[in-house]
Every structure is written in structure tokens, then in C-alpha cells.
Structure to design on (762 residues):
């Protein structure tokens, strides 16, 4: 029940366990062609979506070393651990960053971004997260996009956690590059990452002079146009991706997002009923970050949940370590997975001495289920 | 029957299809600790072997951007497509390369390497392949190591195809960095790569000033010491790796190499009996490269093998395209897979008008099986 890696559907596990295809064959290219088309539908974009064999950080690096050139500046929105990573990568490659430090737990303010863009000429790219997994905040990408589109800069959005969970229309919202990974809303094991690349971004890719080889986006785009990859692709994961895309597109992206919104709301209502406080001012549908109550040992809470109750949730990262815990409701799970987690949470909080009425959070979730008539879940057929 | 990606054993496929663990848990760290110990045994090294989530080219890039610094030179042995890749990567990062161009099909001459090292001060690293997959040649790494160890340079060996197939003792042979991938002798899908790093190499890593982030080896070594990874690891592939390592170590590395030597010899004898000519002067046990006979269409041969006979073999790459074909005998396959391939090859060559006596190559392989008493194969239990 952590915000990724998320559970993998059984039929996807079995597809990945099928006989391995060789990747330089027309048979595999046919799979890749189909996957490439379906990825565009899931990403809701007309731009090509390239697939890399790496975890999400590799795609983040790809978006830095291929869009920027020596002397360029980058505007980085630091609202959590993953926002900060873009800045670290950019500075590694000698790029000057303009850092917009957002209070962790708050969303970025589009007006502040507009101001920073005006004050700092030479910014070629703005890096934001959709859902900042470390705090559970979702940013207003639509508003940020409407600011960035008026400038020469491109907008890069890390949607690693948010894709499929939060509303997201990259083309309508003027997002140039969407960065994603396989192990969150895509319900796959980690090992693949993704980048969609707009025409405006492709122009920057053409002129970029930062060094890269494995993560050379020009090569990846060229190969993508021929339903190929520059290096050996993650064949088994791509077969799983093919199966996942069929499941998600059959449900419909809009319904997938609705399902996540429903589970997120249920979780938030239940947690608040237990007397706990949320971290995020504007919460994502992917993950609910909750403050560890005063006097309770946050590390012990995570450990007892996992080792005694058998439920893996996530702790806080960096400055939030020990102070928050995070409940994922992302991908292949339903209301009863969440109810089980809430029940375990009540058990462990009680053991740790927090005053919670057993069954209070669970009952709140049940009330929502009673009201809705039936739970909204991904078909397990 | 291509030289990778190779077939994945069924029990490994099933292990990868098991419930996904979260990677930041003591439970996964226990797996990683065990895998790290077993990897050292398989690699026959006392040096740490780090695991990356990328295909082999990512590990090649890692060995360039972490060992070298601005102003360093690298000696690159160009004896095929994969040897050349090291040079391309180095030049991408502004490193001056000293190129030793070996005739494709010939092994590198250690005396020439010694001469080049003397003539070009400032060479910090020598890049070689163990088995050059594109030509089927195996290099004399022991002799190369005895030359490089006398200098300040480190020796980096791409063992992506050769590991488990060819004799290879990195520590005894003074190899500083072994680069490997998952989809060849390790019998896994592509998506993991590996680097072992000697103390001499770790000193270069400490001083390296080339830019890197995802492929930062210092971070990977630091995490490895704590049975961790800097970024989200390829969890499902690592579970498969755990199963593969048990299979290979139970058989014993020496026996695994012997098994490959046996299959390679059988293939070479059979191919020669069919009147065909080998490409490699000193052939690897991983792959047999064969010259396409005069007047036969190499592309058609590969295509008919795959689309009509259902057996995927590999063609030539770069300058050898259309001129050679390559038969893999690497990983999870036995003499009867090879015999089936030889039979199909005789069928297709006959269809294409080459004068071969049907059954001639097959009979040669059978003779060897008769003489040996029983076939040497990996237990499928």
C-alpha cells in the first residue's frame, strides 16, 4: 500500500512470463508499434512517447541533458524530494538553476512562476511534478502551462506518480515533456520509463549540446519513428505494458482517474475520522500523506504495519522522515485493500498509544461505500 | 537461437511472476544481500558487483563516465560493433581515444596494446570485449591484463556476451571492471546491467569529474555496501536473478563454462561439415559466426529461418550485414536445440540453392553425442 511500486495484475505477470521474443524482429516491432499507439492514448497526447530501459530517474535525467544546452538556465520547482531531483541533475551538468522553493505540502503558485520567468531571462525549461509523491501534493499544471507557453521555455512534468491517478491533459495544458515510470499507475514492475516530447521540445533536443549516450533522446525519437529502440529494450516489461495498456484503455482513462479520485477521497475521509491530519493542502489522488500524531514514533508505525500486520506503507523522506506516513491508492487495488489498511492502522496506532476508536476510520469508509451503492474498482477479470 | 536475448528458464519466469516486493524494506534488502554475494561467485571476483536498471549499454557508459576525467585518454580496442561503442561513448564525453583497430574476426594482440600504452601517456583506461558478439571472437584477456596491470591504466572488459560461456577469471587476470548484462549468459530478460569495480578502479571513480547522475557509480557502490540501490531497482528482474544465480552456482561456474564449450564445439564441427566457413579466428563459446556462402542472400536466410522455420538466428551487424549469420549457444539451451537449428539451416540453405547434403551437419553433431556418451546440459528440473 505504498505509493509505488504498486501491485501488478496477475494477467500482466503471466504475460511477462511468456516466452521471450527477440527484439530485432518484425514480430516484436509489431508489438512495439501497437504499444506506442496505445501509450499516446493513455498519456492523452499526440506527441511521441518513447520508452527507456531505466527507472524514472533515468527519464528525469533524459529530460535535462536533451532539452538544455551549455549556458541555459532551468526553473526548478522544489516542493518535495522529486522536484529537488531535477535541480540536482541540472546542476550536475553545469546548468544554472533558478529554484522556486515551495513549502513542502503546498502546491506551486503559477504567479510566482510567471514572475521568476520574467526576472530570469535565459530559462529554457521549467521542471515541475504533477503529483509530488513525497508530500502527496498535486500541482495545478494547467495554470502553470498557461504561464510557460507564453515564453520560449518548455514545460517538463514529472508524472511518475500522478499519471492515471490525477486529471492530466498534457496537450491541452501546454505540457511539452511528460516524464513517467512503469511502477506506479502503470501497474508494472520498475524498469521502464517514458517521455513524451512536443514539437517545441524536439527543437531544443536538436540544439542540445550536453553530453549523453544511453539517454540520447534524438536517437530514441528516431528509433521510435520506426517502432524500434536504440538499445536492447526491456522486452518482458514491454510485453506486460502491452497487457496493462489494454486493461486501462478498456476501462477508459477518464474512468481510471475517477476510480483513483474515489479511493483517494475514501482514504482522506477515513483518516480524518481517525483524528489524523493530512500533509497536502491540495492532495493528489495517487497518495495520501498523513502527519504522524504528536508523541508517536513514525518509524515504529511503519515497521509494525509491515512486519506485524503484513501491510507495507511508506514513511516520510528527507526532512519529513519520521514525521509523516503515506498511504498509496494507486493502480491495482480497491476499497477493501484500503479498508484493510485503515483497520491495520487503527490497530497499530492503538498499540503505540494513540487514542483512536477502533473501527472509526473503517466505518467512515464503509459509509461512503453504502452511499455509493457499489465500489468503483478495476475489473479483476 | 540468437546470441541474446536468450531463453529464460521456466522456473525463473515464475519467480519473476511472484508478488512484487517493495524495495525499501528489510525483506528486499535480504534478497539483495544474498544476490550480491552470489553475483561475486558467478563473476569470480572479490570486488563488489553493482546492479543497474538499464541494458548493457548503460553499464558501458557507466564505465566511461565514472573512471575517466577531463583530459584523460582511453585506449579502445575496435574489433567489432561492441568494442567500437566504448569509443563512441568516450568521445561523446570529450575523452580522447586511442583506437586500436583490429581486423574484424581477429582477436586483439596484447603486444600491440603494450606498444600503444607506451606510446600514449595519459591513458587511464583500456576498454576491451571478452566475447565480441558481432564477430564471435574471444579476446585473450589474461594476456591483455598482464600488460595493463603494469601501467596506471585500468582494464575494463565488456563480458556482456562472454560471461558464463568463456573462461574468465577477472581477479587473477587483473581485470578492474567487468561490464555485464542480464539477457545473455544470465538467462534473464534484458533490463539489468552489472559492473564489478576493483580498488584500483574505485580510486579513479573518486577523482572522476565527468558529469553523471543516474549512472553515478560512487552512489551505486555506496548503496551496494548497504545492500541498497540509489534509484528504484528492477525488482522483478532481481528476483529472477536470485533464481538464476542459484541454478548456475549449483551447477558450478566451471561446469557452466564447460557446457558452453561443448555446445560451441558441436556447432562449429557441424557447420564446417556443412561446407561453411567460420568468421572468428579464435571463437568464443557464446556464439558461432558463420560466413554466408558466395551467391546466397544473407538477409533471406535469416528471414526464412525465422518466418518459415520458426527459429530466430542473428545476422551480421554494421559492415558484416548480409555477409555473416550468427548462431547463439548461450544460456538455457542444449544440444538438441542446436541440432534442430542445424537441421533448419540445411533446409533453408538448400532452398536458397546452396549445395549441402541434408543431414550432414546434423550427423556431425550426433557423432559427437555418440562419442560423449551423454549430452552435457543444464538440468531442467
Amino acid at each position: 500500500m505504498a505509493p509505488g511500486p504498486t501491485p501488478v495484475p496477475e494477467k500482466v505477470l503471466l504475460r511477462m512470463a511468456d516466452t521471450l521474443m527477440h527484439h530485432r524482429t518484425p514480430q516484436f516491432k509489431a508489438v512495439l508499434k501497437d504499444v506506442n499507439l496505445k501509450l499516446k492514448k493513455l498519456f492523452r497526447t499526440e506527441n511521441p512517447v518513447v520508452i527507456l530501459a531505466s527507472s524514472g530517474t533515468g527519464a528525469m535525467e533524459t529530460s535535462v541533458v536533451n532539452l538544455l544546452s551549455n549556458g541555459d538556465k532551468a526553473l526548478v520547482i522544489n516542493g518535495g524530494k522529486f522536484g529537488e531531483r531535477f535541480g540536482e541533475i541540472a546542476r550536475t551538468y553545469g546548468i544554472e538553476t533558478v529554484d522556486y522553493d515551495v513549502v513542502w505540502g503546498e502546491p506551486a503558485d503559477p504567479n510566482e512562476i510567471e514572475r521568476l520567468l520574467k526576472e530570469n531571462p535565459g530559462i529554457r525549461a521549467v521542471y515541475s511534478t504533477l503529483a509530488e509523491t513525497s508530500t502527496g501534493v498535486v500541482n495545478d499544471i494547467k495554470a502553470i502551462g498557461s504561464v510557460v507557453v507564453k515564453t520560449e521555455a518548455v514545460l517538463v512534468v514529472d508524472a511518475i506518480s500522478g499519471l492515471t491517478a490525477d486529471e492530466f491533459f498534457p496537450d491541452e495544458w501546454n505540457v511539452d515533456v511528460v516524464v513517467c515510470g512503469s511502477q506506479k499507475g502503470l501497474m508494472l514492475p520498475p524498469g521502464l520509463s517514458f517521455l513524451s516530447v512536443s514539437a517545441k521540445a524536439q527543437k531544443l533536443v536538436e540544439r542540445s549540446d550536453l553530453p549523453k549516450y544511453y539517454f540520447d533522446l534524438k536517437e530514441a525519437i528516431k528509433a521510435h519513428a520506426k517502432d524500434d529502440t536504440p538499445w536492447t529494450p526491456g522486452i518482458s516489461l514491454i510485453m506486460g505494458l502491452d497487457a496493462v495498456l489494454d486493461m486501462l484503455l478498456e476501462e477508459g482513462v477518464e474512468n481510471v482517474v475517477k476510480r483513483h479520485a474515489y479511493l483517494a477521497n475514501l482514504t482522506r475521509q477515513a483518516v480524518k475520522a481517525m483524528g489524523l491530519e493530512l500533509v497536502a493542502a491540495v492532495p493528489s489522488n495517487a497518495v495520501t500523506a498523513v502527519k504522524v500524531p504528536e508523541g508517536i514514533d513514525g518509524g515504529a508505525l511503519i515497521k509494525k504495519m509491515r512486519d506485524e500486520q503484513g501491510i507495507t506503507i511508506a514513511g516520510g523522506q528527507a526532512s519529513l522522515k519520521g514525521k509523516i506516513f503515506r498511504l498509496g491508492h494507486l493502480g491495482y487495488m480497491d476499497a477493501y485493500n484500503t479498508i484493510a489498511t485503515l483497520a491495520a492502522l487503527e490497530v497499530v496506532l492503538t498499540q503505540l498509544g494513540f487514542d483512536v476508536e477502533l473501527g472509526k476510520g473503517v466505518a467512515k469508509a464503509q459509509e461512503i461505500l453504502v452511499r455509493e451503492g457499489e465500489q468503483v474498482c478495476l475489473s479483476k477479470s
In short: Residues 59 and 335 of chain B are 32 Å apart (CA to CA). The two ends of chain B are 21 Å apart (CA to CA). Chain B touches chain A through 50 residues (CB under 8 Å). Chain B has a mean pLDDT of 96.
